[in-house]
């Protein structure tokens, strides 16, 4: 059994014979600031997302082993039956289902805790960053931000910008010069060449209202086999995917996605 420290509290990563390292459901619930029932209900409602190497219920003999290993001030801690244990992958999956800000942040810290156990240096490395040098803290903030962004499939180049911005705000350390040299940032230049259908039509010299121009370009892209109309709107086909990029929009409390198209390549098709 190894101890990790998260949010100034100690938690156990348990290693039962023949089982992967895992955390008690009540500990995961405490970290994610939800009830143990909510944790177990999430796993029960999504069985396909929690195979046995993500989550498992301990056997009676394993429960006795746990009781001998874990020192608790709560005599009723194990009175509710055999608890569930969540592995690193299970904790991450829970964070994607619960979707609270706390769960996502703590999931990153849990990843670090499991990694520390695997490296065998859990006793000499602290997850608490309060006493770190500003540069070290900034790098950890950036790393955490990129890991969280990956959970939500945020494009790498956008995640890098936000992570560096957050690190600068919190620590005063600015890694913008290094950011500009990042390979992922080259995608920004490509996206600047991408426009929505109505704007592409204007660039091609079409006249009329934005709606009329947009319909004309959407029709052209459809006839060219580059996109199709679905209940969710226009989406690129396999042939058109390399010409389009998905963008999020927001208006008031509403959000959604649309697609922008590479102006130069659409112009070539239009003129060809």
Notes on the structure:
The protein is elongated and about 80 Å long. 49% of the residues lie in helices and 17% in strands. A hairpin with a 2-residue loop joins β1 and β2. With 272 residues, it is an alpha+beta fold. A three-stranded antiparallel β-sheet has the order 3-5-4. Strands 6-10-9 form a three-stranded antiparallel β-sheet. The protein has a two-stranded antiparallel sheet with strand order 1-2. The chain has three domains: 2-119, Roll (Mlu1-box Binding Protein, DNA-binding Domain); 134-185, no CATH class; 193-271, no CATH class. The N and C termini lie far apart (68 Å). The model is unreliable at 72-76, 121-131 and 188-192 (pLDDT under 50). It is built from twelve helices and ten strands.
Low-confidence stretches: 72-76, 121-131, 188-192
CATH topology of the largest domain: Mlu1-box Binding Protein, DNA-binding Domain
How much of the polypeptide forms β-strand, as a percent range? 15-25%
Shape: elongated
Largest sheet, described in full?
A: 3 strands, antiparallel
Largest sheet strand order: 3-5-4
Overall strand count: 10
Tell me the CATH architecture of the largest domain. Answer: Roll
Q: End-to-end distance, in Å? A: 68 Å
Give the integer mean of the pLDDT values. Answer: 78
* Number of DSSP helical runs: 12
Given this structure, which CATH class of the largest domain is correct? Alpha Beta
Query: Helix and strand succession?
Result: EEEHHEHEHHHHHHEHHEEEEH
* Estimated radius of gyration: 25 Å
Overall domain count:
3
Quick structural gist:
With 272 residues, this protein is of the alpha+beta class.
